[in-house]
């Protein structure tokens, strides 16, 4: 199955865009994980640092009391227990703020607070006894137990932080493991798609250049052929004109000599000779009509932008009826004309068109009934359909296309006169006006000619 180049390019760009989106999401997740780990690491460090400061202050205070108790040196009691308690309280409040979003750590801090308060009371009592030089080993043991409980609570808090840190580290390791392959694969696919798109576009561009070159060549050939065709048409028109005049001259001589024979020797000629002369005169007349019709056919349908005007078709058809008045009276014909819109074209060609069609209806009128011709129009957008209906002898629908061909007749010369050129001239006129003509017929009932013409001659207007 052949896939168009445009679809291939769109598919390639869609895949590349999808790959970029996936790589961007992975990069975002990895970056977010790294930032979260960095924040949590700082969080853990801050908690560890604060807990370390608290335990250090407690141990320093405990060592100071013991040192003073042994040596009696008051420098061991500086800073005093109140100042150390303030530092411990500051660190404790910092821990409260840092772990405000962690319910478990808050509970540990509550326990730690109780242990610190108890330890503070023990240190205060130990400081007082050391000042009074009293020895109390049970207080020392109780202080060690209290400090051990504080150390365990501090270790519990550090374990919670380290567990979360390890969990985030595993998540970071997972994203880091997939990030490098994803970036590598996406980059490779993007490069391959870029190369494919470049090759495809280059091939398409070259094909486009080739097509444009061929089109220019065809246009040049077409223009040359049009020039040759126009020249050939001009030569044919000149030939038809000259031939018609050259053929008319021998016919005139034959007609003249035939008339002289009949005038001078008509009484002395035998009956058979007279009949031959009459046949010759009839053939000459038919030949003259045929030549004139051919000349009309060669000239029919000539249209140029300068000759195009808006034609009042209703008035034009009435003029045609007036020209055929005698023939219509002979058939006692009735012609009904409905309003027809104005149409752009050449009045002379339209006049000849409808004169031929109406004359055709008169010629083929039914001998047993009065001839009725109805002419009406239907307009749709820029087209106008003109219907010419008659109740004449009609014709077999099989010959609907044949009747518009040159020299085509459905009846013999003895039945109806004519050369078979009239409807061919009609078709040529309609074609030159970018329309079309069709015919519908029923034997014994009549015929309908449908002429479709554009309201405005757009093509010629653009050329003009």
TrEMBL record:
InterPro entries associated with the record: CHASE3, HATPase_C_sf, HATPase_dom, His_kinase_dom, HisK_dim/P_dom, HisK_dim/P_sf, Sensor_kinase/Photoreceptor, Sig_transdc_His_kin-like_C
Region (Disordered), start-end ranges: 126-145
Catalysis performed (reactions): ATP + protein L-histidine = ADP + protein N-phospho-L-histidine
Pfam families, sorted: CHASE3, HATPase_c, HisKA
E.C. numbers: 2.7.13.3
Bilayer-crossing regions: 12-31, 174-199
Stored SUPFAM superfamilies: ATPase domain of HSP90 chaperone/DNA topoisomerase II/histidine kinase, Homodimeric domain of signal transducing histidine kinase
Protein name per UniProt: histidine kinase
């Amino acid at each position: 199955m052949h896939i168009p180049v445009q679809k291939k390019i769109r598919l390639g760009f869609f895949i590349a865009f999808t790959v970029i989106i996936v790589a961007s999401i992975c990069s975002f997740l990895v970056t977010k994980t790294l930032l979260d780990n960095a924040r949590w690491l700082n969080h853990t460090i801050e908690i560890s640092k604060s807990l370390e400061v608290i335990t250090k202050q407690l141990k320093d205070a405990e060592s100071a009391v013991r040192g003073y108790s042994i040596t009696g040196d008051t420098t061991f009691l500086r800073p005093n227990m109140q100042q150390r308690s303030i530092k411990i309280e500051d660190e404790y409040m910092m821990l409260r703020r840092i772990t405000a979003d962690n319910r478990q750590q808050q509970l540990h801090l509550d326990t730690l607070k109780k242990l610190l308060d108890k330890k503070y009371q023990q240190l205060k009592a130990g400081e007082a006894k050391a000042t009074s030089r009293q020895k109390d080993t049970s207080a020392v043991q109780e202080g060690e137990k209290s400090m051990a409980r504080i150390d365990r609570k501090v270790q519990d808090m550090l374990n919670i932080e380290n567990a979360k840190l390890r969990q985030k580290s595993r998540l970071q390791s997972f994203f880091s493991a997939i990030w490098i392959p994803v970036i590598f694969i996406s980059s490779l696919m993007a490069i391959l798609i870029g190369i494919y798109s470049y090759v495809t576009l280059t091939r398409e561009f070259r094909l486009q250049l080739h097509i444009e070159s061929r089109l220019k060549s065809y246009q040049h050939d077409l223009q040359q052929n049009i020039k040759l065709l126009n020249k050939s048409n001009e030569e044919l028109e000149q030939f038809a004109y000259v031939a018609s005049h050259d053929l008319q001259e021998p016919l005139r001589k034959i007609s003249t000599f035939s008339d002289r024979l009949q005038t001078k020797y008509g009484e002395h000629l035998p009956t058979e000779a007279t009949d031959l002369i009459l046949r010759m005169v009839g053939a000459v007349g038919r030949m003259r009509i045929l030549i004139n019709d051919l000349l009309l056919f060669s000239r029919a349908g000539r249209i140029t932008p300068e000759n195009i005007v808006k034609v009042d078709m209703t008035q034009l058809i009435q003029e045609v009826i007036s020209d055929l008045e005698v023939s219509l009276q002979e058939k006692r014909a009735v012609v009904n004309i409905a309003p027809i819109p104005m149409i752009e074209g050449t009045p002379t060609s339209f006049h000849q068109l409808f004169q031929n069609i109406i004359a055709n209806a008169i010629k083929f009128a039914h001998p047993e009934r009065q001839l009725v011709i109805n002419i009406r129009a239907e307009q749709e957008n820029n087209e106008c359909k003109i219907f010419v209906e008659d109740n004449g002898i009609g014709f077999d629908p099989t010959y609907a296309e044949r009747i518009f061909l040159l020299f085509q007749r459905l009846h013999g010369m003895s039945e109806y006169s004519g050369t078979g050129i009239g409807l061919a001239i009609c078709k040529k006129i309609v074609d030159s006006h970018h329309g079309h003509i069709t015919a519908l017929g029923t034997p014994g009932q009549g015929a309908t000619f449908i002429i479709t013409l554009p309201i405005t001659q757009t093509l010629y207007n653009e050329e003009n």
